[in-house]
């Protein structure tokens, strides 16, 4: 992989890499923050971003580096979809490039490149292990579409992740307009298939092995129609899972909201990653 950008930050390093992603069959960029004195065992936090984002929105807007440096957390920020002129796309902001929804697509024209679940869960961790020697325990978090990605991927691959949180997640994508549109394009018309990637459905069926921390803003314009955090709370009750959904008065969907509570999420992950068996 090729180092394409590097900045000192809080005595650590904010780096950006480009590499050939086998699972996505295209070149990808991702960002990684290495805290001071990082080691191969340092814990990692994967951050999955939302619609329209690249790896850079989080790096530039979330203000996560100061606390990550203090806590010794490596931050990994992947892009939100495969990229490139030969990669299928759509004019809408909520489908195609910038909107991979963290699933492996089965439908044309998406199935060749849109394999974000394999990329996030398998290929990127293997790349970080082989190229940077990073093999610490991993947590996962994200925003909006990335909050859906974080919770659903962790529930699908519980052996891979030791801590999970989300900001304004699309909690029940098989029952909201963003999710219905993306899942019908990527996964086809069978709603049963959609439910295999739906955090609320997965959580209702299986008790989560870790507590899940969620923040949502009460003034988020997407809250009632697209995010539906109450579905996650109902699911947690049904399975006996520990899910804390905190409603933050007056906050909206933006990275101003994310940045406001980032330190609390990083502390939560650091606690889980360093103290849980
Ligand atoms: N642009 C879309 C909304 C997209 C949006 O809000 N994206 C969020 C994630 S779902 C985001 O993080 N945008 C990039 C940013 O704020 O830096 C719209 O017009 O409704």
Automatic annotation (TrEMBL):
GO MF: carboxylic ester hydrolase activity; S-formylglutathione hydrolase activity
Record's protein name: S-formylglutathione hydrolase
Reactions that this protein is recorded to catalyse: S-formylglutathione + H2O = formate + glutathione + H(+)
Record InterPro entries: AB_hydrolase_fold, Esterase-like, S-formylglutathione_hydrol
Keywords, in A-Z order: Hydrolase, Serine esterase
Entry keyword S-adenosyl-L-methionine: no
Residue positions of the active site: 144, 220, 253
Protein family per UniProt: Belongs to the esterase D family.
GO biological process: formaldehyde catabolic process
Function: Serine hydrolase involved in the detoxification of formaldehyde.
Signal peptide region: none
Any one Gene Ontology cellular component term annotated for this protein: cytosol
Organism: Natronocella acetinitrilica
The enzyme's E.C. designation: 3.1.2.12
């Amino acid at each position: 992989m090729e180092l394409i950008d590097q900045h000192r930050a809080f005595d650590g390093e904010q780096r950006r890499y480009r590499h050939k992603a086998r699972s996505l069959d295209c070149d990808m960029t991702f960002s990684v923050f290495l805290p001071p004195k990082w080691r191969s065992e340092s814990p990692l936090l994967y951050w999955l971003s939302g619609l329209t984002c690249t790896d850079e929105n989080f790096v530039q807007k979330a203000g996560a580096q100061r606390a990550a440096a203090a806590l010794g957390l490596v931050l990994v920020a992947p892009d939100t979809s495969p990229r490139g002129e030969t990669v299928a796309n759509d004019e809408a902001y909520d489908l195609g490039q910038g909107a991979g929804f963290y699933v492996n697509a089965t439908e044309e024209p998406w199935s060749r490149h849109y394999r974000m679940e394999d990329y996030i869960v398998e290929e990127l961790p293997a790349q970080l292990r082989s190229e940077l020697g990073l093999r610490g325990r991993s947590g996962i978090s994200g925003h909006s579409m990335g909050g859906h990605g974080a919770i659903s991927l962790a529930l699908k691959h519980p052996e891979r992740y030791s801590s999970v949180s989300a900001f304004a997640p699309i909690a029940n994508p098989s029952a909201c307009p963003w999710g219905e549109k993306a899942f019908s394009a990527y996964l086809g018309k069978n709603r049963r298939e959609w439910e295999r990637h739906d955090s609320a459905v997965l959580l209702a069926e299986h008790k989560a092995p870790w507590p899940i921390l969620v923040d949502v803003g009460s003034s988020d314009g997407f809250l009632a129609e697209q995010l539906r955090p109450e579905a996650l709370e109902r699911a947690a009750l049904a399975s006996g899972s520990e899910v804390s959904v905190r409603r933050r008065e007056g906050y909206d969907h933006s990275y101003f909201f994310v940045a406001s509570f980032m330190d609390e999420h990083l502390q939560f992950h650091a606690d889980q990653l360093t103290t849980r068996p």
